[in-house]
Write a structure and sequence with these properties.
Blueprint (H helix, E strand, L loop, with lengths): L45 H28 L19 E5 L33 E5 L9 H7 L4 E6 L1 H15 L8 E3 L11 E6 L4 E7 L4 E4 L11 E8 L11 E5 L14 E5 L2 E3 L4 H19 L6 E5 L29 H12 L6 E3 L2 H5 L5 E3 L9 E5 L4 H15 L3
Parallel strand pairs: 3-6, 3-9, 8-10, 9-12, 12-13
Antiparallel strand pairs: 1-2, 4-5, 5-6, 7-8, 10-11, 14-15
Helix pairs in contact: 3-7, 4-5
Length: 418
Amino acid sequence: MMIGNLSRSSSARLSNRTSGLNSPRHSFSVSSFSHRKWIPFSAAAPSLISIAGTFFLSALLLAFACALYLYLLRGTFFTGFAVPEEKCDVFSGSWVPDTTYPLYNSSDCPFVERGFNCLANGREDTGYLKWRWKPSTCDSPRFDAREALERLRGKRVVFVGDSMSRTQWESMICMLMTGVDDKNSVHEVNGNSISKTIRFLGVRFEGYNLSVEFFRSVFLVQLGFPPKHGPKRVKTTLKLDRLDDISHRWVDSDILIFNSGHWWAPSKLFDLGCYFQAGGLLKLGMPITSAFKIALETWAFWVETMVNTNRTHVFFRTFEPSHWSSNKKVCDMTQQPSSEAKGDDRSEFGEILAEVVGKMRVSVNVLNVTLMGAFRSDAHIGPWTHPSSVFDCSHWCLPGVPDAWNELVFSYLLANAK
């Protein structure tokens, strides 16, 4: 099976282009092969050279035959995948209609926040639920909850990030619960209701000895008090060279999925008196993008030194576009996936992530979902929030777009079991 570019250097940049729902722009590379003629070193001792040459050519033919055999069979190891000759970029594709979706009923899943359950909040149209992400040059298997649960038996899955990460966490739990017969065997470990204010939430699938956990860490680095004798406008600081003080709880995991970016904005930082700090020094004039890069480099060093990537699959999900109207008061929503990639994609964050991950000494998979979300202005929460007085043009309804992110994660794990 070929899951394709879940790569170390996958860029999240959105280009200004239009794309039909069923024929988006995509690119791939075709490997080129060169052939070198074998030439004897000398005309002397023809019998010895002839024997060596025959042996060498036989070895080459045997190696080629083995390689061809493995190549032809590579798509049969995992059922449900159509494997192209070229490596498939699973993030380049389109949303196609599929009446077998959604994968679950949010009202039947006790781990979906009321604010993400658009149907329960009064949304009457259901067309936004009937779309599946289809890569351009390959296909992914239909999600099988029971198979996923078996592959995750005895594992620990950890999500770290902001509310977008919590949405993906809730989505994964609901997807997996469709394969559980005894729903009472699935519970939050501390008996907590799902809330955006809790730093840790953990759900146990007792029948499978499986934990799916969420840690709220919106910046990934430490938030602390300002240094003494600092300017009065500095209320808190982000210590860019120190990872969050709860990071030790992320280490012992089998799947580790990060995200960050939505809180890296002036309204979440400077307007609230939060400034940057590195090496014990305030960096009052540091741009947000520069600070974001330093924070990611701190995260990358932590992964390289603290995480056993021979055991743990590490993912970092890119920025998810929002679709606010020009006056920032209502959502610029469509009735179905748009034919053009739109929205605030924070492409500079994707470029920084690609640069940092590309320099890492260990394997990290970039979930480059930015383009996927740019077509889905129809799938935001919009006015169907809780409480209803708040518009939401950033988060996604559940079921919805985050389910596709998890489908890609499961597809990758299917192909790269450790």
